[in-house]
Amino acid sequence: MKRLVTLLVVLFVVVAVLVVFGTRFYQVVPPGHVAVATVFGDVKPAPYEEGLHFPVNPFYDWHFYDVREKSHKETASVPSQDQLQTRVEVSVQYRLNRKDAPRILKETGSAEDVLTVHLVPKLRSLLRDQGKTIKRAEDFFQEATQDQLQTSLLAEMRRYLGPKGVEVQAVLIRDISLPPFIIKAIEAKKEREQEVEKQKAELERFRTEQQQKVAAAQAEREAAEEQATRRRLLADAQAYEIQRINESIGSNPSYVRLQALKALEAIAKDPAAKVYFINGDSPTPLPLMHLGESAPR
Q1: Is 259:267 a contact under the CB 8 Å cutoff?
Q2: Which of 100, 249, 274, 297 is the most buried (most CB within 10 A)?
């Protein structure tokens, strides 16, 4: 009888423990997370990876950390050496180190505390410090300046946050907003540059047209000179031909007599023509007689 009572008491205690602590004998860690256990304020040094863990101390308190990559955006007014404030928006890509989760809990607190205590204040401080190395506010728009700013921020953030259990993957500049009057000045400068480029293009077009006209005039002049040369050569050839003909005629008496006979023949056929015969041996040849006139009475 006593054994039965003892057995019932033990069974009751076991059931009571299972009812009260049943779900505390195991723990499930979600994907992308690690869990840190504490018991009576003591932080256990080894984190629990994702998955089912059984059995575990039912007196453990659990703290979960999301160790997946995250992005934090921050906007700050950054002064440059010319004392102008430029709004710079950056994003920091980071993740919590799995192995450092117990130290994060012990030294900092939750994942949100890591942001508010370490990441955000340090990022703002670095932005202001890096801005002091830039001479003019408009230099923020230069690609070399942005590359240098990102590189410096990444190196400093890694150096500072690494020992605190935070891995920084990248620091990216998302947007830059200059003071309004500088934006207007830049826009006016761009408009002037565009107008200058437009005038240069117009001048180049006019120069090209003039060159084309000069080339066309040169071609016309060369064509005219070539035409004049051909005409001169043709005239020289014709003059030479006439000269040669005259020389041939002058050196050929028979040809002269033949032409004279042809002329007489033509005259004879004309009723109105008069024929004169002159003494060719006289220094002043005089007509000896002529045909076609009546004798004087």
Answers
A1: no
A2: 100
pLDDT of 19 higher than 60:
no
Average pLDDT of the residues in 32-56: 95
The reported pLDDT for the residue numbered 284 is 47
* Sign, CA torsion 238/240/246/249: negative
SS3 sequence of the chain = CHHHHHHHHHHHHHHHHHHHHHHHCCEEECCCEEEEEEECCEECCCCECCEEECCCCCCCEEEEEECCCEEEEEEEEEECCCCCEEEEEEEEEEEECHHHHHHHHHHCCCHHHHHHHHHHHHHHHHHHHHHCCCCCHHHHHCHHHHHHHHHHHHHHHHHHHHHHCEEEEEEEEEEEECCHHHHHHHHHHHHHHHHHHHHHHHHHHHHHHHHHHHHHHHHHHHHHHHHHHHHHHHHHHHHHHHHHHHHHHHCCHHHHHHHHHHHHHHHHCCCCCCEEEECCCCCCCCEEEEECCCCCC
Do residues 130 and 122 touch, judged by C-beta distance below 8 A? no
Nearest 5°: the CA angle 189, 175, 70 is 165
Q: How far is it, in rounded angstroms, from Cα 233 to Cα 35?
A: 110
168's CB contacts (< 8 A; 6+ apart) are: 92, 93, 94, 154, 157, 158, 161, 162
Residues 63, 41: Cα–Cα separation, whole Å = 12
- CA 12 – CA 18 distance, rounded (Å): 10
